[in-house]
């Protein structure tokens, strides 16, 4: 757990936690305007540079190898982490923009579940509601006259509704409400395909769900090939979409943790205790067959990814993840702790200029605004 550490406890921190602390975003508040503190990034593996060097002269850094595959781009591995593969720049700009749009508009739609379900139930069209400046308000607090300007959230007995701002504020009531834009910023995950039950850390086949979109399935099958056992084809059955928002507050997590801790079976909540721009060190151990890879797509702002060993005491390797990069984790790599201690949102390090060009049309301004301060990760799994 990450909640009881103080400055003088550094010697008691695990090697993984020390690395998280090293790369985490801290601000220098000694001046009138706060600035990010300088971080030593010299030890961070840069697979973009590795690819450029490999294409130019065939040279690779010590500990890195090129994996033969049928893909159109080189696939790199780490000798010290069998089963881990990195495909830099695997997604075209067009593909990146497509999956960013899907992640914000389609993937959080019911029956897919999100972190908001525990408090608000199913929320439909959150991204559109945010773009239109709508407010989510308790049903009991709204007038039951003609329902003008009110969008009912999906459900037989909805407790919350999206309303026009003036509809909520004109009545003068002290209703519980939250803006759609705030909810969008507090969106942390959505689940596709077979739904994951966070309280039991397992897949619940009884929960309503839809198949993963065919295009995403086909993409995952193609990308997973270098990490698959010989003669087998990856079968995408579930996916978790993670949303990282820089500077996000912890209020959503506190509310969610309260709900989770009230359950008969207490879940592992370590990951929920970190800010929105971090994913704490963890294992993806819910699937039955670890020989099948997790296929992980990175979108929007650049991030630092930590890949540790089989215990938190193993010193992790740090590497950059850029929009369009693909990570595969199979076999022994599935037993390695990993996490994301930081995303970069400043213009010099976010590296989203190509996305800015792709989303330059006025109708795409909301997508661009989101991308400038956020990162999206889609990780696709074979459950059985």
UniProtKB/TrEMBL annotation:
Keyword tags: Dioxygenase, Iron, Metal-binding, Oxidoreductase
Family matches, as Gene3D superfamilies: Alpha-ketoglutarate-dependent dioxygenase AlkB-like
Ranges in coiled-coil conformation: none
GO terms under biological process: oxidative RNA demethylation
Domain Alpha-ketoglutarate-dependent dioxygenase AlkB-like: 179-381
Gene Ontology molecular function: broad specificity oxidative DNA demethylase activity; ferrous iron binding; oxidative RNA demethylase activity
Cofactor note as given: Binds 1 Fe(2+) ion per subunit.
SUPFAM superfamilies on file: Clavaminate synthase-like (SSF51197)
Keyword Oxidoreductase recorded: yes
One cellular component term from this protein's GO annotations in UniProt: cytoplasm
Binding-site residues, Fe cation: 282, 284, 338
Cofactor(s), names only, from the UniProt record: Fe(2+)
Metal-binding among keywords: yes
Superkingdom assignment: Eukaryota
Chain ranges passing through the membrane: none
Record-stated family: Belongs to the alkB family.
Entry protein name: DNA metabolism protein
